[in-house]
Each structure stands twice: as C-alpha cells, then as structure tokens.
Design brief:
The chain is of the alpha/beta class. The protein has helices at 64-78, 102-109, 123-134, 136-143, 194-202, 215-232, 240-245, 267-271, 285-294, 297-300, 312-319, 354-366, 390-404, 423-433; strands at residues 2-12, 16-28, 38-48, 52-53, 56-58, 61-62, 85-92, 118-120, 146-152, 157-163, 166-173, 180-182, 189-192, 259-263, 302-303, 323-324, 330-331, 338-345, 379-382, 414-418, 440-444, 452-456, 467-472. The two termini are 40 Å apart. The model has no long low-confidence stretch (mean pLDDT 86). This is Ethanolamine ammonia-lyase reactivating factor EutA.
Length: 477
C-alpha cells in the first residue's frame, strides 16, 4: 500500500516570502501477514515559488492582503488548491514574527493552507526546520558528527546544532542583513534596529538614522555582529554584547562542532562573495556575509555548503515538519485534526510499583495546567512498555484513569501519546475501562517531551496511521 500526500511550506521572513509544495510518499513496508508498518519513504519538492520581498505597510506592519495575494497566485501557478494539502507549515520568521499584526496574518492564511498545517514562529523550531531543510541534520547523521547550521536572514540568526541526526542545541540572535537599512543611492540610513544601535554604541561606532553612512562604518557594524556569532559558537569569550543579542537562551557549548553550514539570505554572500554593488538590496546583508567569510568561523570550523541556502526554511517547513504515527493506534471518534495540544509527559513508568508511581506522576503533572478553569485539552505522553502483557495494559490503563482523576471530566478527549508500540491495545483497554463514556485517541511511535505541543492530522493509510507534527518550542538540558 502506497499513499501520496501533499505538503506546503510557506515562509514569511523579514526579507523574503516564498512557498514550496512537496510530495510525501508513505508505504506499508510490512509483509501481507504482519502488523502494518507504515513509513515515510520519499519526500520531494514538486513546486517552488519565486522569492518575493516580504510586503510591509511600514516597519511595524505586514501587508496581509499582499501576502495573501502572493500565496493565492502561487497556488494557481502550481495548479493546486488548499483542499489538496494534507500537511506542512506556515512560518512567520525573524523580525517579521514580532510585527504588530503577525498573528492576524497567520489567521488570514489559514484557509489557504489546508486543514492540518502548523502555524508557528517559535525560534527554536524555526532553527530546526532550517537545519533540516539545509541538509545539516543529514550531514551530521551521514558523517556521524556534530554539525551546526546558522540560518541568517534579514532579522535573526537561528542556530541549530545536530549530533548524529538529532538536535542537541538551539539558539536565536538578533543578527540579520536588514537590521540596518539604507538607500543604495544616497547611503542615508533609513532604519536601525534598537539592538544594533546599542551594539554600535558599545563599539563606539557613530551611526544614526537620516544620516549618510560610509562603507567602512557599515563594515564595522557587521564586524561587531560577526563577533557575537563567534562568541555563540565558542570561538571567542562570551561578552555582554552576546547576552544582549540573544533572544532567549544561549547555546551550551559543551561539545565540539565538526562542521558548520550557513543558510538564509545572507548565506549566498558567505559562499559566493561577489564584487557587485555592496548596498544592492538597500541593507547590509552583502557586507555581513563578507564579514562572516573573513571571520574565524570558517577558519576554525570546517565549512560546508548546504543543499539549500535561501530556501532552507521553506523547504524544511514543506518537507520535514511531519512524522507518521505507529500503525497500531486507537481513535474512538474521528475528531481530527487536533491542533496545538500541550504535552504532559509522565515520568518513566515500569516495575512492580507502576500503578502508584504512574498515577502519582500524572496527578502531579496535571497541576502544571489549570484544568479546573477552562478545561484546557492536554495530551498525556508515556514511554510505555514493549510487548506488554494484558495485566500490564490493565494496570497502566487504571493508573492513567486514576491519575487523571477529576481532571478527566474537563477533557473533551483522552489523548495518549506512547513511544513504544502499544497504542491500539492500550486505547481499547482505556475505552473499555471508561465504559465508552469518554472518547479516546491513543497513538504510538512518537517521542515527545514536556513543553512540546502536538498536532494530529486526519488518518492516512486506510486509517492505520495519523500524520503528526511536534512543535518543540523550548529545549531544556
């Protein structure tokens, strides 16, 4: 059994807006007499839009109508409709995510992105998606190494570090090519981001809006921005400037980086530093790329060119956001898609005291959510047991119900996400124990953590699996 699903990636960045459509092939790889095992077998891009400058009304407001017009036009060019799209992501990235109407822009695009498309702007997830789209995740897996990708756009630099194909660290800095904008004809500064002003002042660089700037001064600003990138990678001592430029937590720097890749709009000027017009795009993106190329970064860490540069995020959003659940799942009601469900992960459960420990763990974790007022839907995550005996299934089901306690009544569904292959039997046992009074969604083959959010799409493969997107917003180590 093979099934093709279509995915869309829409990236609305500080500098550019673009879209890709991808085809994702899923297939049952088990024999006719075995339990189905449905896997993603192939991902390929079937259409890429042109790259547009992100339309803004002013520095604080996205032009939602023009963004929607761009997306509608590209759907038409691709010969596709929103109803044909099964999965994907709409990502508002970088500085654009902080614009006053960013959330309303996402809402305006909801009807253009199918029923099960993630809309998010979390910098950690953005970094991971860009790293996957660039091919850095694959590089770390193929080489058995640690590889870092710096996705440098117009407003932010998103850093993702991969080891053997797994994400181990992320960070985001306010460093980008359009944080200082000027007229290429007059070289008069039209906009300086607040943090860039402070960075320049700290380095005693004189630069002001509505005043002309020399190439040398712009280069000096780019050099200061590059220093913070050297610091975040552990190539120079950490300074207060780095603390200021970080948008959240710092990298841990407890590992050695074997390879580095660059993606985003600035990346092309790192790998291909041409001698053309320096302020061609009315910003400092070209100079920033040159400054990074001259820095200690490519001298001290092996630099590789990724599969994608400026398209890394949109390719990642279109082809790398979705996972497929295990093939033994339970759902007692077709309630899909389920979106933005927070994960509540119980402590590891095994051994003879599983009943008491699991129930207590669930009860304690429930206190993290105010389920009494508003009844927020959550998904309970468990590691589960490999090849469980029937008595173990009953014990786990009873522990879940007892741990949920009075909170069970506030939940529209009992949603269980299990890592090990046991969801069908566990879901059926739960439904039986609840006497059919509460609908159950129980899926397996998915690993999540507290702090994650999960989206579950409409069943695929004759109802045997569901597409899943895990939105990891924060990494804790």
């Amino acid at each position: 059994m093979k099934e093709e699903i279509l995915s869309v990636g829409i990236d609305i960045g500080t500098s550019t807006t673009q879209l890709v459509f991808s085809s994702i092939l899923i297939e049952n790889t088990a024999s006719d007499f075995s339990v189905p095992r449905i896997e993603i077998k192939e991902k390929k891009i079937i259409y890429e839009s042109k790259i547009y400058f992100t339309p803004l009304i002013n520095y604080e407001t996205i032009d939602a109508a023009r963004v929607r017009a761009i997306i509608e036009n590209e759907y038409e060019k691709a010969g596709l409709s929103p109803g044909q799209i099964s999965t994907g992501a709409v990502i508002i990235t970088g500085e654009t995510a902080r614009k006053e109407n960013a959330s309303s822009v996402l809402e305006s695009l909801a009807g253009l992105a199918g029923e099960f498309v993630v809309a998010t702007a979390g910098p950690d997830l953005e970094a991971i998606i860009a790293g996957k789209g660039a091919g850095t995740e694959r590089l770390s897996r193929d080489e058995g190494c640690v590889a870092a990708n710096l996705d440098i756009g117009g407003g932010t630099t998103n850093v993702a570090v991969f080891k053997d194909g797994e994400v181990i660290d992320t960070a985001c800095l306010d460093i980008g090519g359009r944080l200082l904008r000027l007229s290429k004809n007059t070289q008069v500064v039209e906009y300086i981001a607040p943090k860039i002003k402070k960075l320049a002042e700290g380095a005693r660089i004189s630069i002001r809006e509505n005043q002309s700037v020399t190439v040398g001064t712009a280069e000096a600003v780019c050099a200061e921005m590059t220093k913070t990138l050297e610091e975040v990678l552990g190539l120079a001592p950490k300074s207060k400037a780095l603390e200021m430029m970080l948008t959240g937590r710092d990298l841990r720097r407890s590992y050695a980086i074997d390879y580095i890749t660059f993606s985003g709009g600035v990346a092309d000027h790192i790998y291909n530093p041409g001698d053309g017009e320096i302020f061609k795009f009315d910003d400092i993106g070209i100079l920033l790329g040159k400054a990074i190329r001259k820095s200690s970064i490519p001298q001290r860490i092996k630099m590789k060119k990724p599969y994608e540069t400026i398209r890394a995020t949109v390719v990642g959003a279109g082809a790398h956001t979705v996972e497929i659940s295990g093939s033994t799942i339970t759902y007692t009601k077709k309630c899909f898609p389920l979106k933005n469900i927070p994960i509540l992960k119980a402590s590891h459960e095994d051994g003879p005291e599983i009943t008491e420990r699991l129930a207590e763990s669930i009860s304690q974790k429930l206190e993290l959510y105010d389920l009494q007022s508003g009844g927020q839907q959550v998904a309970l995550a468990l590691k589960g047991v490999k090849n469980p005996a029937f008595s173990q299934l009953v014990t786990i089901a009873e522990s879940i119900i007892r741990g949920m306690g009075k909170h069970l009544g506030t939940q529209e569904y009992l949603i269980i996400v299990v890592e090990n292959d046991m969801a069908k039997a566990l879901g059926q046992t739960l439904y039986s124990k609840l006497r059919g009074e509460k609908h159950v969604v129980c899926i397996d083959g998915i690993s999540v953590e507290n702090g994650d959010y999960i989206d579950i799409g409409k069943p695929l493969g004759d109802g045997r699996v569901v597409p899943v997107v895990i939105k990891t917003l924060i990494f804790n180590f």
